[in-house]
């Protein structure tokens, strides 16, 4: 029950943060904003699950709330999927393919960088050079 409450509370914050970013008029194009949010989420999810436990003694309840709740609601696969469909439906094939490629390969790269940063922090904490 505690995990459920943690996920729900953090999900509210993550969803509200994503919505707040979409309301800022200076951010630019919706598609690239969603892509940026998702790429940031890939990095943060990898860092939170891999490195944060080595930095802070967080309980499983907190880690689940941060990863599943906060980051899970901050990123949005459903919006990404809908955006891709809209780009295809409006005959913007090049943009649709670019959107998918940047999201997929950028997401994997960001997750990799999050794990690498985590490993560097863990290595430093353990007294490595």
TrEMBL record:
Location within or outside the cell: Cell membrane
Regulation: Na(+) is not transported, but it plays an essential structural role and its presence is essential for fluoride channel function.
InterPro entries named among the record's database cross-references: FluC
Superkingdom of source: Bacteria
Annotated membrane topology: Multi-pass membrane protein
Molecular function via GO: fluoride channel activity; metal ion binding
Record's keyword terms, sorted: Cell membrane, Ion channel, Ion transport, Membrane, Metal-binding, Sodium, Transmembrane, Transmembrane helix, Transport
Catalytic reaction equation(s): fluoride(in) = fluoride(out)
One cellular component (GO) term of this entry: plasma membrane
Binding site for Na(+): 72, 75
Transmembrane segments: 30-49, 61-81, 93-115
Any one biological process term the GO annotation gives: cellular detoxification of fluoride
Record-stated family: Belongs to the fluoride channel Fluc/FEX (TC 1.A.43) family.
Function text: Fluoride-specific ion channel. Important for reducing fluoride concentration in the cell, thus reducing its toxicity.
Protein name: Fluoride-specific ion channel FluC
Gene source species: Levilactobacillus bambusae
